[in-house]
Amino acid sequence: MNWCIIIPILVGLISALLGYLLGRLFSNNNVQENNTSNDGDITILQNKIASLEADLKACEKSKLSLSSDLELAREATKAATSNLGAAASLTADSSTTLIPFDAGAAKAAFGKKIKQDDLKVVEGIGPKIEGLFHNFGIKTWKALGEASIEKCQEVLNSGGDRYRIHKPNTWPKQAKLAYEGKWEELKRWQDDLDGGKA
Length: 198
What we know:
Flap endonuclease-1-like 5' DNA nuclease, mainly alpha, 0% strand
């Protein structure tokens, strides 16, 4: 046998076998290292996912709370609007409702356009005296109709000496007739008055 040929073949086979075994050994180490590295990455990602899910749940809870608060606010606004509407339809005496103003009837009786709650409709009240009443919070026929003659005199006195000469004895009753829409009766009465005095 020719040893010259067998020795290189044996060395080649042994080298191939050693190469194969070393390759398997190193590839197992790399796989294990990669698995260890991947396990760490997976853990980090799982922690991030858990954190994001917790944030999402907190946001959903906050959204539900805000939605609930918004619904309560809407209901409160609706109730307040309803209460305002009901309050607007009532006068100081809760059993009495407001009387609607009929501009056509007022114009027919007076022959001119009348604005609602224009205190100058009352015989004896001009723009300056109307301003004095407004300063006292008396801005409607109803409010003037419910004011006492003493209150009317107090309003006049607040304007100084030039307003004290006026006599408001008929003013509340005139305002009440205007508020109640009794325009014909008010016009007839005013025709008999002298500057608002009976």
